[in-house]
Amino acid sequence: MINLTFARVTLLAAVAAMTGCDQPVSQDDDILTVYSGRKEHLVKPLFERFTADTGIEVRYITDGEGPILARLKAEGEQSPADVLITVDAGNLWHAAEENLLQPIESNVLEMNVPEHLQDPNNLWFGLSQRARVMVYNTERTSPQELTTYEALADEQWHGRLCLRTAKKVYNQSLVATLIEAHGYEDTKKIVEGWVRNLAADPFSNDTQAMQAVAAGACDVTLVNTYYFGRLENESPELPLAIFYPNQGEGERGIHVNVSGAGILKYAPKPELALQFIEWLSQDEAQYMFAELNQEFPVNPNVPASDQVRAWGDFVADDVNLRVAGQRQAEAIRLMDEAGYQ
Ligand code: FE
Predict the structure, then answer these.
(1) Rounded Cα distance, 253 and 129, in Å
(2) What distance in angstroms lies between residue 212's CA and the mean position of ligand 1's atoms?
(3) What is the 8 CA–ligand 1 centroid distance (Å)?
């Protein structure tokens, strides 16, 4: 909390200096400004490495999704921000919808970031992948019982399911992809089944949901892989394991989402912004970006960390992540109608 506040204060001072008329323009030439919805400890080491590699200084703030978008809208053309980094395609889509981003023409990014992990209009590019997977209690459940997201609606899971709240964008994005695959009515039946099977009220975060599974309050939950990675590091003794759903013949694969970046529409330094995002898509930065949070690189030539690779290979749903944004409102309505809170 202290760090976050400090970062904000530093930036506010920096912004004041940058917009002051007595500031010689040349002093600002090598300064890039980033607004990040990704937490400070996950981005700061990358900013430092970028500065070491290029001599370009990075000024930044980190904050929640809502406050950052509100701030960008309030700042308008006067915004000092060049780059937006944020998590979840649903949030990236919002920034694009709010007309805050500009299209990026880059052969480097087209080469390094798979098509389905970038905006079709090149307004944003994914930079790390997280999968939303099942985590189950290894003492109470066998992986043979587990199959698909859809099957968690079956009677067999009655009183055995824990979920994070429907208010979190991760679940909204997952349900958006289910709507894309099955249509609204069939997805609603699936989500109603999940709600019927809940062993406890939805949790406010993924870690609490996994702790409930570990404690035996329920047998299985849905979480982003990096939360499992963190808990695995902190409490390796817990009887928990990852299961990759929807891997059978003809299945769509698991829901993957991204954290990613775009160049802001009124970026004062669009060339530096492009240089930075391209740098993030290349080998060393990709490994680091993913490894800092136990995620998967988007660049297919870059391996995940040893910890992440130990979780095994999977087939991922290759639906374009724009769906997470386009169907977000429907997903929220559907979950509400299904009684998922
Ligand atoms: Fe998260």
Answers:
(1) 14
(2) 18
(3) 21
